Amino acid sequence: MSIPLPRRKPGIPDDSAVVPYPYSPARLAELEAIIERDSAGFKSGSAAFLEIRENFKDDFPKICKRYGINPELLTLEGSYLIRDTIDCNGQPTNPPTLPPIQDAAKFTASKLKAPPELVGGVLHQGCKLALGGGSKTFKTWTLLDLALSVSHGQPWLGFPTKRAPVCYLNFELQEWSIQKRLRDVAQARQIPIEPGWFHVWNLRGHAEGYGGLLPRLASEISVDQLGLLILDPIYKLYGDTDENSAKDISALLNALERLAVDTGAAIAFAAHFSKGNQASKESIDRISGSGCFARDPDAILTFTRHNEENAFTVDSILRNHAPVQSFVVQWDWPIMKRNDDLDPADLKQPNRGGRKKEATVDTLLQCLGKRKLTSAQLQKRCLAQKNIQRASFFRRFGEAKRIGAIVSAGKGKWMVSKVSKVSNASSDTSDTSRSHNPLGYETARPAKKRKPQGQLPSPLPKKRP
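and the corresponding structure tokens:
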């Protein structure tokens, strides 16, 4: 219901009892002029509503009350911006209606038809999907691939898709950048983009809190017009939302759910991991911010760094589908490709810091064993078996020769020495060389002479006459 002009509360005879404006008459005239210019009047989502909220920020709640809009209902239930009139007691005159309570016997008598599966085994139309990953882990590329796949009915990361119209809300990239990415992905997938199936809404520089943007989006989308709506990234919709507040994030996710219900579209969004290595965390706990991100979406796909370069383990948390076994995808510009040859459990581990432990002469001797090898052959063997790098190998190789742990076997080959005591071994007295002496090749130290017990010191020599 539109209320184009200020009104008094019922039973109040004069304007003094109405919530006052803190403005001059000229400012008040400006406010009323904004409302009169908009045929829709002052209601949630209208042009006048958005303009007044932008230009009269500090006293917006007072303005809402004067025009019969309860500001406390603007975020109730997490819906975008619920407009409602209030009576003289401050109570809403038309509260939102709830669905009826149903008898379970009657409710289960006939089978309800499930909505289409946009991503087979993962996502139904009308549900919410969160795609989580660390910083710079190709989330936007992957979501563009998802949008292209669903809008043209092509497989995505090995999952079949159901063709449906898609709208991609781009909050992060400049128009030329997302255009180039989209062209690159379409070329790599060999999917010509057909008109009427894939829509892009470039909102970089126009992002605002979800309370202002979602109603405008809902007003432009009719029911069944879209199958999938992608928001990238979700934090651009935060506005004043505290990412770590369960109350704030719950309201945001409820607003997305309301949008999904009103439009019939599935909602997908990208979410960032918390800082640091994620290998030690459960997949459901890797997304940063409130735990609502892990509990609310109907489907969650997390992309965690694999030990293999540019590879990621994909874990899924699904509400409406059977569990999907974890798998690995690998970045092959400009798309992710599934790689079933890699072990999903082989996640990249955190770097504990400190200097890597140096190889020892014992390790070198273990690789040599009873063989007779050239230095080049032994170096390759140490690299393959013990991952001893070239510089470290030749340090230990020189030490082994110096202490006599290996000896020449002729023709440029070397073998393990059978002699336990090596000449000149004591000449190297550094802590490093002593710590790496193999068993049986310890550096000999000169024994200290002990004086026999009970023996008196020798007398002084006699003087010569």
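(Above: one complete record from the training split.) The domain at 117-338 is CATH 3.40.50.300 (Rossmann fold).
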